[in-house]
């Protein structure tokens, strides 16, 4: 019989809410805590504050099992054994560095509720050195609690599956007996994925913290690498999608994360590589990460190139043109619009005089709040009607599946810009569309 553990999850955003529901699904007794009363009320009522496939069902079944509850009061952590820190570390305004105020506030309010034998487990993405600093705080508070670092690798859109069946687990542990005690507790929490064969890497704090930012830096590098190749393809008439297929067949390279297009956005990759550069600078290792500045630049250049291409296909100007933007989320199967390349391009085109209408299957409400000056449509049909130009900027399945003939009936001019290399050029061209994409002839 597996042992059930009492678990606190502090911070019920994307990461925390999914983690809390998944921990309950694994059989633990879980309390989710957040300072945001509205979010807690929603979660307690079984409603997801964000769009994430599989999450609403899991939330509801975990609540129904009686193993999951939510609170705004940190005192609800008292008596639990394992306390996960899942609060956000956003980019600081006007700087590259991560803002640690939520981590620090969560830690300070947790400290008085810790007891001997408790384990605090950091999951947030943090500058290397944070775990050691927080471990000192736990020590100084004198409760006898321990701290471990256990970075999270879930992808939005696959958050539930990635949490229940992770590619790997990483534990950053203190040295000596304390490390052994912490490992035993984490093994208890993750008994199910471990017995399913999930690889485990046990390391020190700094290595565990670095694994997370190194992984995201590598993913960002892969995307910017293929987007740099797309720039060269554009200069030569070559096709970056074929190039990606061909190099991806080499298993040392692999095809995944080689989709050229508008580049990466979201709440993680862009801010993580910037925070990593900032931290490396503080550590005197900035030269080691100088390449990440280029990764960031290549990524941002794609957005400018997209607008240039729009101008090009519209005969030199987009002033007064009706432009339909399909997609607002930073990627499909998400309503997250943080640092969304699609919205950035939409806003640039509007600034340059186009009349832009944005639509998205899930992200319109979030987009409207963050970019109130853009115009929105509730459906693809409404967005494309009368358009002089259509852009696919987030590759939702419904845009991939769109019928060129049917869409063609609605638009004023059959011009399609595929910002994600998501459509079949031959199919659109056969229906009389001018089809252009990034990195493709
Ligand atoms: C990313 C990582 O993939 C997760 O492993 C990590 O846990 C997470 O950040 C995090 O740090 O929390 P996520 O931000 O959900 O996950 O999104 P990704 O699937 O990585 O996509 C990021 C961006 O890259 C999207 O804008 C996507 O459109 C773009 N992308 C991805 C490409 O442009 N090309 C590709 O080939 C792949």
Notable traits:
binds uridine-5'-diphosphate-glucuronic acid; Rossmann fold; alpha/beta; six-stranded parallel sheet; 2 domains; 14 strands; globular; 441 residues; 18 helices; single chain
Structure description:
- It is built from 18 helices and 14 strands.
- The protein has 441 residues and is α/β, with parallel strands linked by helices.
- It has 2 domains: 6-203, Rossmann fold, CATH 3.40.50; 218-437, NAD(P)-binding Rossmann-like Domain (Rossmann fold, 3-Layer(aba) Sandwich), CATH 3.40.50.
- The strands form 3 sheets. It has a 6-stranded parallel sheet, sandwiched between helices. Strands 11-10-9-12-13-14 form a 6-stranded parallel sheet.
- Strand 9, helix 13 (341-351) and strand 10 form a beta-alpha-beta unit.
- Bound molecules: uridine-5'-diphosphate-glucuronic acid (UGA).
- Uridine-5'-diphosphate-glucuronic acid is lined by residues 125, 152-156, 216, 219, 223, 257-259, 261, 263-266, 268-269, 272, 330-331.
Question: Structural class, judged by helices and strands?
Answer: alpha/beta
DSSP summary, beta strand count:
14
Roughly how much helix do the residues carry, as a percent range? 40-55%
Number of helices: 18
Quaternary state of this entry equals single chain
Assess the beta-strand content as a share of residues.
5-15%
CATH class of the largest domain, anyone? Alpha Beta
* Largest sheet entry: 6 strands, parallel
Q: Enter the CATH topology name of the largest domain.
A: Rossmann fold
| Cα-atom radius of gyration | 23 Å
CATH superfamily of the largest domain: NAD(P)-binding Rossmann-like Domain
Give the uncertain stretches in residue-range form.
none
Distance between the termini: 60 Å
Bound molecules: uridine-5'-diphosphate-glucuronic acid
Number of domains: 2
EC number: 1.1.1.22
Function: Catalyzes the conversion of UDP-glucose into UDP-glucuronate, one of the precursors of teichuronic acid.
Binding site for substrate: 153-156, 212, 257-261, 265, 331
Domain UDP-glucose/GDP-mannose dehydrogenase C-terminal: 324-425
């Amino acid at each position: 019989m597996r042992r059930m553990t009492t678990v606190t999850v502090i911070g019920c955003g994307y990461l925390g809410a999914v983690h809390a529901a998944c921990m309950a699904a694994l059989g633990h007794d879980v309390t989710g805590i957040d300072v945001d009363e509205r979010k807690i009320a929603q979660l307690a009522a079984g409603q997801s504050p964000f769009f994430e496939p599989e999450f609403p069902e899991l939330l509801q079944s975990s609540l129904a099992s009686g193993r999951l509850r939510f609170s705004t009061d940190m005192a609800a952590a008292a008596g639990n054994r394992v306390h996960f820190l899942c609060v956000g570390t956003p980019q600081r305004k006007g700087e590259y560095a991560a803002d640690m105020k939520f981590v620090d506030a969560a830690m300070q309010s947790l400290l008085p509720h810790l007891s001997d034998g408790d384990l605090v487990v950091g999951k947030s993405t943090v500058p290397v050195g944070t775990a050691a600093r927080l471990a000192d705080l736990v020590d100084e508070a004198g409760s006898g609690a321990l701290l471990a670092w256990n970075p999270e690798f879930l992808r939005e859109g696959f958050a539930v599956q990635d949490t229940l069946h992770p590619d790997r687990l990483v534990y950053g542990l203190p040295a000596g007996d304390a490390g052994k005690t912490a490992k035993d507790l984490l093994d208890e929490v993750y008994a199910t994925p471990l017995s399913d064969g999930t690889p485990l890497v046990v390391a020190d704090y700094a290595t565990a913290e670095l694994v997370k930012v190194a992984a995201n830096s590598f993913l960002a590098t892969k995307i910017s690498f293929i987007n740099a190749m797309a720039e060269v393809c554009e200069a030569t008439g070559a096709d970056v999608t074929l190039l990606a297929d061909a190099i991806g067949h080499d298993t040392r390279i692999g095809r995944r994360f080689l989709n050229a297009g508008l580049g990466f956005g979201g709440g993680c990759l862009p801010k993580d590589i910037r925070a990593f550069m900032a931290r490396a600078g503080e550590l005197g290792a900035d030269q080691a990460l100088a390449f990440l500045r280029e990764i960031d630049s290549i990524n941002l250049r794609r957005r400018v190139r997209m607008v240039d291409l729009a101008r090009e296909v519209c005969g030199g100007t987009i002033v007064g043109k009706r432009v339909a933007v399909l997609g607002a989320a930073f990627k499909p199967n998400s309503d997250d619009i943080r640092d969304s390349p699609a919205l950035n391009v939409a806003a640039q085109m509007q600034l340059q005089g186009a009349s832009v209408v944005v639509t998205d299957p899930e992200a319109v409400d979030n987009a409207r709040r963050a970019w109130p000056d853009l115009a929105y449509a509730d459906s693809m049909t409404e967005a494309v009607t009368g358009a002089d130009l259509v852009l696919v900027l987030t590759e939702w399945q419904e845009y991939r599946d769109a019928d060129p003939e049917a869409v063609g009936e609605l638009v004023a001019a059959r011009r399609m810009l595929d910002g994600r290399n998501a459509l079949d050029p031959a199919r659109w061209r056969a229906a009389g569309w001018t089809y252009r994409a990034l990195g493709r002839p």
